[in-house]
Design goal:
single chain; 204 residues; L,D-transpeptidase catalytic domain-like; 2 domains; eight-stranded mixed beta sheet; two-stranded parallel sheet
Length: 204
């Protein structure tokens, strides 16, 4: 009898062990099946790869999304005596309603601010993409090196970009390549702003 009792006890333990292993295996299969289903939140969150291309000779800026040109904007670029830097940079700061600082001068946000309503700062120290209080300078080589935009265009672009996005600024030597995106080169007349305009944009 003792031997029979031990055998029955051993059988019960074996049955319980098999049942536990079965439950573990079933749970693992369910977990694996669930993990293959798409996460709705992940599906909704689509990341686009965006970069900015600026053509100095065309005085235009293109927003490129996933390799395709999404929008082209007119801009002002650096004047001959204060050219815009060329090369590949990244956006390192984004500011709404920036304050303008220049030696001996501080201009708070408002209609007289030379930076307009937004500042997109680049890794090229002191340079950025911003608005202007001299709208007639857009389309000309008139800035102190920064890229200026109309207010509406700038605010639209600002909302689409983030820190770390790439900004490439190309010069005259790349004009042939740039023409495929921006078209024919513009004329160079009226590049120099009037004396009042120069006074208003000094320091940019």
């Amino acid at each position: 009898m003792p031997a029979a009792i031990k055998t029955q006890s051993g059988n019960r333990k074996a049955v319980r062990l098999i049942a536990v292993l079965f439950l573990i295996a079933s749970g693992a299969r369910r977990s694996g099946a669930q993990s293959t289903e798409p996460n709705p939140a992940a599906v909704r969150k689509i990341h686009h790869q965006r970069r900015v291309l600026v053509s100095i000779p065309h005085r235009k800026l293109a927003l490129i999304e996933d390799g395709a040109v999404k929008k082209v904007y007119p801009v002002a670029v650096g004047a001959a005596e204060s050219p815009s830097p060329t090369g590949i940079f990244q956006i390192n700061i984004r500011l709404e309603k920036p304050t303008y600082f220049h030696p001996g001068k501080v201009i708070p946000p408002g209609p007289d601010n030379p930076l307009g309503t937004r500042w997109i700062g680049l890794t090229a120290k002191g340079y950025g993409i911003h608005g202007t209080n001299v709208e007639t300078s857009i389309g000309k080589a008139a800035s102190h090196g920064c890229i200026r935009m109309h207010r509406h265009d700038l605010e639209q672009l600002f909302a689409l970009l983030k820190a770390g996005d790439e900004v490439e600024i190309l010069g005259d030597e790349d004009a042939t390549e740039l023409s495929r995106i921006f078209g024919e080169l513009p004329g160079t007349e009226d590049d120099v702003p009037s004396a009042p305009a120069v006074a208003a944009i000094a320091g940019q």
